[in-house]
UniProtKB/TrEMBL annotation:
Its cofactor is FAD. The keyword Oxidoreductase applies. This is FAD-dependent oxidoreductase. One of its GO terms (molecular function) is oxidoreductase activity. Residues 16-446 form the Amine oxidase domain. The lineage of its organism: Bacteria, Bacillati, Actinomycetota, Actinomycetes, Micrococcales. It comes from the Bacteria. Substrate binds at F340.
């Protein structure tokens, strides 16, 4: 087994860990990044499937994501706008399809009024939330005790309004049923993007992509670190004390002054700590869990939906694919749709044989786009739930009561051990922007200790 000495050892070569390592290296400190996978990028992954370039993980850039946009520019990458010309489509509970433009779904006038009122109310509440300190929100404990479903039921008996408002947080972001996370967790999700209105606006939240794929961000960050990124090195053990840390993989032992665990919090327990982490971390990490969503990629000879004047944007809280978009690559003649199957729907279809699952998902897409949607030339399901070193998507969130109880402790270091990931971010929570912000912040704090 090889041995090495560094100022800082970083566990995890996703956007957060690689950002932290680069910042520390720029400040003159020696670093090494240990990555369990055979690639860098974590939840960012661009791959070629049957001749089609697909972004299997995170891919979008929003206007308020300054940290990500700065990094993209600094790395010499280009952004381009998601295709959105034409009408969006909405399917109601009866399966009736309506074309529409704008942000508010084409629901009955009374339901629209309730939805607008709820969005305004949530925007007002979100304005009182500091995404870096959500536990200081007025009535934080009370809001953290009630599920988002329960909170919505207190506001209105209009089920379609509730279903649609829940969709923006539950299906589209936390990828958990709205009865399983708190109203406070929902407010944090919205505050991290600037407002609840931003989550409602697909043209805002899914604004741009990166030419060649967003995984280029971690790939280029890793290039700058060269041989200081070691792949295929899952960390098995971490010994720590006042004199620093010793981190062990199957092939290398690293002695360092400080360690940064740049992995989702539910994976921290995969490492054996000596001495064990304090009871606080043991409790807290058990109440953080990943959501679950299948990202479905369907590539066609041409973007046929555009001929019908459709943007490709589609929504329905009543469909297997609750949302879908035109995801055609930059300069590509072929057309790509991306759809999402979330939480319990994802559970259900993974109980089916692969061919039946594919048929069910494509049938759902055909309800939005017509029968042509059932015949893609390339079809692929991103199943992050089966990924050994991720185990879900998009990110981790607390169960009821967890955010108010432990939120303030999430980022607190334990001796020489620091924690950094998009799951712990305030601004940019769950997004690559948050991963980069956390990487910068953690590097700054670690550098103060060195």
């Amino acid at each position: 087994m090889g041995e090495m000495q560094r100022d800082v050892v970083v566990v995890g070569a996703g956007a957060s860990g690689l950002t932290a390592a680069n910042e520390l290296k720029k400040a003159g400190h020696s670093v090494v990044v240990l990555e369990a996978r055979d690639r860098v990028g974590g939840r960012l992954w661009t791959d070629t499937i049957d001749g089609a370039m697909l972004e299997l993980g995170g891919q979008w850039v929003s206007p308020e994501q300054d940290a990500l946009k700065q990094t993209i520019a600094e790395l010499g990458l280009e952004r381009y706008s998601r295709y959105r010309d034409g009408d969006s489509v909405y399917l109601d509970a009866s399966g009736r399809l309506t074309r529409f433009t704008g942000e508010i779904f084409p629901v009955p006038a009374a339901t629209e009024k309730v939805m607008v009122e709820l969005i305004e109310k949530l925007d007002g509440m979100v304005a009182q939330v500091d995404p870096n300190r959500p536990w200081e929100t007025p009535n934080a404990e009370e809001l953290d005790r009630i599920s988002f479903t329960g909170w919505l039921e207190q506001q209105t008996d209009d089920m379609e309004a509730r279903d649609n408002i829940a969709l923006f947080i539950a299906g589209a972001m936390l990828t958990k049923p709205a009865y399983s996370f708190s109203a406070l967790q929902a407010l944090l999700m919205a505050a991290s993007a600037g407002s609840f209105s931003h989550l409602v606006d697909a043209d805002f939240i899914l604004d741009e992509r990166v030419v060649g794929g967003l995984q280029q961000v971690p790939l280029r960050l890793a290039e700058r670190l060269g041989d200081d990124v070691l792949l295929n090195n899952p960390v098995r053990a971490l010994r720590w004390g006042d004199d620093g840390v010793t981190v062990t993989t199957d092939s290398v032992e690293v002695h360092a002054k400080q360690a940064i665990l740049a992995v989702p919090p539910h994976l921290i327990s995969r490492v054996s700590f000596e001495p064990p982490l304090p009871r606080l971390q043991h409790q807290m990490h058990q109440h953080l869990s990943m959501g679950f969503v299948i990202k479905v990629h369907a590539v066609y000879e041409r973007p046929f939906w555009r001929d019908a004047g459709l943007s490709g944007t589609a929504f329905s809280p009543y469909e297997l694919c609750h949302e879908a978009y035109d995801n055609t690559n930059f300069g590509d003649e072929r057309g790509t749709l991306v759809g999402f199957v979330s939480d319990t729907n994802a559970d259900d279809v993974f109980r089916l044989p692969a061919e039946e699952r594919r048929a069910r998902i494509l049938e759902s897409l055909s309800h939005y786009y017509g029968p042509e949607a059932q015949n893609p030339v390339v079809y692929y399901e991103s199943d992050w739930g089966s990924e050994e070193w991720t185990r879900g998507a998009y990110a981790a969130s607390f169960d009821l009561g967890g955010l108010a109880r432990w939120g303030a402790d999430l980022r607190a270091p334990v001796g020489p051990i620091w924690f950094s990931s998009s799951d712990l971010a305030g601004e940019g929570y769950q997004h690559v922007d948050g991963a980069i912000r956390m990487g910068r912040l953690t590097a700054e704090k670690v550098a103060e200790r060195l």
